[in-house]
Amino acid sequence: MSDKRLAEELFELEQCQSGSGAGLDLSRRGFVQLLGAGLVITVSHGQAGSLGVNFQPGKRGTIGSRLHIGQDGIITVMTGKVEVGQGSRAQITQAAAEELRVSVDRIRLIMADTDLVPDDGTTAGSRTTPSTVPAVRRTAATARQVLTDMACRRWNVSDKDIELQEGTITHKTTKRSVTYGELAKSTDFDKVYEHSDDGNATVTSVSEWQVLGVSVPRPNRRDIVAGAHRFPSDIQRPEMLYGKILRPPGFGASLVSIDISEAKAMKNVVVVHDGDFIGCAASNSFSAAKAVKAISKTATWDVPDQPSGKELFSYLKDHAQIDQGRGGRRGRSSGKSKGSVEYGLKSAKRVLSETYEVAYIQHAPMEPRAAVAQWENGKLTVWTGTQAPNRVQSDLADFFGIDSKLVRVIVPDTGGGFGGKHTGDAAVEAARLARVADKPVSLRWSREEEFTWAYFRPAALIEIQAGLDGNGSLIAWDFKEINAGSSGINSPYEIPNARTRYLRSDPPLRQGSYRCLAATANNFARESFMDELAAIAGTDPLAFRLSHLKDTRLRAVLEAAAKKFRWDKRKGKTPADTGVGLACGTEKDSFVACCAEVSVDRNRGTITVRNVCEAFECGAVQNPDNLRAQVQGCIIMGLGAALREEIRFEKGRILNAGFAGYQVPRFQDVPDIDVVLLDRQDLPSVGGGETPIIGIAPAIANAVFDATGIRIRSMPLSASVLKKAGK
Amino acid sequence: MNDTITLIVNGRKTAVITDPQRPLLDVLREDLKLTGTKYGCGRGQCGACTVLIEGKRSLSCITSVSEASNKEIITIEGLTEGGRMHPVQEAFLEEGAIQCGYCTPGMVLSAVSLLKKIPTPAESEIIEWMNPNLCRCCDYIRIVKAVQRVAKGASEVKSS
Questions:
Q1: Residue A90, H or E segment
Q2: Does B45 reach chain A within 8 Å, measured CB to CB?
């Protein structure tokens, strides 16, 4: 990752104020094996045999830190990445299987257990594909080479006539063969694990892929569909209690007085009171909640004055830090500058200025934050749903003042992340309760807590001014964004005079990453504004963009989407109150273009999305079905932010902290969707879980304009604007 | 105050001694350790907690355990019979209709109850029936396809 991009991601992660943190222990879990006839049997770890109870992963940088070859031929692969539904489990399994020349059934992937796996960084930034997959492939290819060399030495042959298939190494001329498992029985096999993980072995070229490039399904899908997989909130430990935390009535509140005596008198309830941290643990969550409720009645708090959602944008603008030019943290100028914006605007024939407002939204993963914490002989183990296991590990170590070697964080495959689970809040809370209770504690946030005390995709105020020359081409571009962050802030278009700035402000809500971060806001504003410029120039929106685009990959998705959507046939030919719009963008080295058709009911002020076509390109595609699912998921999730989602708040409280008041997309909201995947086998694979989301909101806004002549410069697209302008 | 409540879950009768006001969801998960049924919102707004009570689709987070006493309850764990998965589960697998999988048990049970009522539903009927179930991964398209796959199988059996 470029330093600059790393800095952007880290900045947006930094926005999460509290660091706190908390997987199924596979060395003690029973493996579920599925036989051909659909019979499900549970095999205890000992019989599965892949990992001994005394298994120790190898040192960082060695093959042993990443792989283990079982004598039964099962290959255990270790990664610090997590599975939150984006398909990393299948993909990393494929990566290892490809290079080891085995089918995916021979791979057991251990994910995100800090005792067992390497630190592969936070699962974020669409980094699994461009970073972790190559690392796994390099190590697996090195192991393949080391094992081959081992066999060749045994047989005293060169590796010229060697064939590898399904974990068997065969010398074709003499027909001698040995399996990986048999080699693993040799007394000096430990040398393999000590070997550096970055040998000279070449990874398989795309044209020869057998396992990568295939739509491999999720390896533990049967567990999921049977309800057998234990998500973080499902983890069971002996003598486990259930915890609940007392929440203040508003952000930034301080406790004035409290009386915990009624709760303390409750049978079998553990009360933890440590300053402003108050929680209860009991034999079931209902009792814990009852105890917390009793305490809550007695508590008085001081909630500081703070801005409400109604004054959000004026507040962000008033507190925007003055741009001090390039560099420096305060009011830092991110984004590219070119030429002279002042000159460009002065020489322009037409100048346009507009402001866009983007509301706070939330990820609302199906599984709220959850953690199970257990202290044993001074060591803390936490199972928790987080995208940042190593960060949570160090947060826990810091919080309790212990060495991180005494903290084990395990992330079982989790019920959704979307950039919203970079922090381990539940992990620290559960660990605090467990320490006092001296028993394992399971803590699961309620939906209301998840909507209030997690964090949000930042709101944004975006001001754009641009100039067109006499030919209707862009001659100046001045883009200023307040609060959301610099992801996706740069324009991909050819503009001789341009300035792009991002200004911090004083956000009233806790904010952090989201699926594609601030690019969701920045691309909405940019692509809506491009459409406004096209209209002024009297040019078709597609032609206007193409005339300013040199980037061949972005052009390719734009043309592909327009072609599949039949843009030329539909633009200007839609019935009344129906319109089409398009948008494109690039982020994280991938490229998206989106066309949408909407119909509008001006009286009701409703926008219905009828048809969406998205073209997406992220280099060589490693798992087509999963990528398609990610693109579809992004489109539908993005509809919510485009049409309905908005966090409303006042006096430090979230007013719509539930699915009734915060309306996320449902079955009935799904339009006809066409996805065109451009498989560029000649380009390195990059991630695809985020970028597809940035095209949908501006495409819809532009389609609404096409249908009604009305510009709605906000996310969500405010229907009331339609109603007012209606008659 | 605790009551003794008889629950019939996946064909097994169990007595629990507990506060009758506790949500059925909690009792299933915490007392019976049947964690397949999920908590999504606690307010009946997302369908993650869907179970069948006397064959009817029910939201266990807003059903008290006393309301469910002496009634046949089917959870996701109860759909597997003799090691074989239910056709709806197989269809979800065949269509790959799983991303994070957290909504999956609720979706499966919702679909099971639909197909009991309407063995070959139209797409619009599937969408309307399944609408109370949320999927934040937004895998709706594949879930509808999974239900259609089962329906198609049923209609083929019917016509053969």
A1: helix A88-100
A2: yes
